[in-house]
Design goal:
By secondary structure, the chain is mainly α. Helices cover 65% and strands 0% of the residues. It contains six helices and no strands. Helix 2 packs across helix 3 and helix 2 packs across helix 4. 10% of the residues are buried. The mean pLDDT is 94.
């Protein structure tokens, strides 16, 4: 699994846990829905940290909580 897939899966999991739509996530995160959809549908291959931080702020979690999952812990090194 790559980092972009891990980010996408984490966003989808958090929305599922909270039973919110992508549009609702965009609203509470003060982001345009297209920003989140670009991450989810692979158009954005390098989502900015500030975008992820705004998503975290909207969800009321820290960046540490966002990235503290087994998926992120198991990622292989990007530079080889």
């Amino acid at each position: 699994m790559d980092t972009v897939t891990a980010v996408r899966n984490r966003i989808l999991a958090l929305c599922g846990e909270r039973e919110i739509t992508i549009n609702k996530l965009a609203t509470i995160s003060a982001l345009p829905p297209s920003s989140i959809k670009n991450i989810l549908y692979g158009k954005s291959q390098n989502p900015k940290l500030i975008t992820i931080k705004m998503i975290c702020d909207g969800l009321g979690i820290t960046l540490g909580e966002f990235f503290s999952t087994p998926e992120f812990g198991a990622l292989e090194q990007e530079i080889k």
